[in-house]
Amino acid sequence: MTQSTANTSATTTSSATTAAGTATPARLAEDTSQGRTTIAASVVQKIAGIAAREISGVHSMGGGVSRAFGAIRERIPGGGTGAANIAGVQVEVGEKQAAIDLDIVVEYGAGIVELARAVRRNVITAVERMTGLEVIEVNIAVNDIHLPDADNGDEVPVAQPSRVE
């Protein structure tokens, strides 16, 4: 005995992509005759941030400025929620696809190429599994390396002027 399922398609009028960080409407993930499911860009940001931090070798997320503001926010009662949870993660979410940009700080000694592959794979898997959106790209920018002796508050300069491009 064979069963057939009705495949409904719907047209939508919402815009295709927006940058995260602005008040954007939730995006369409599923539209059926039984109802509509929408997913906010901030949800995709949080999923991607959590998935990236799950990989061993990722010390923190965000560039220097966002990490500094995050440290200040964590000291303020109630300030450690919301935007602090998604520092270093920017997303563009369309109706069926998402693009993700990550800024990460890696632990010294971690293989950056292998780490980036693992982070990319984990983020894509988590976002696609949880949202149903197709992740078309995950761009990773390694902004810093965390040195073990930098935990005592002394900053150790890592960046040197480059002689090569």
Automatic annotation (TrEMBL):
Low complexity: bias regions: 1-26
Residues covered by region (Disordered): 1-35
Residue spans crossing the bilayer: none
The family this protein is said to belong to: Belongs to the asp23 family.
Protein name (database record): Asp23/Gls24 family envelope stress response protein
Origin organism lineage: Bacteria, Bacillati, Actinomycetota, Actinomycetes, Pseudonocardiales
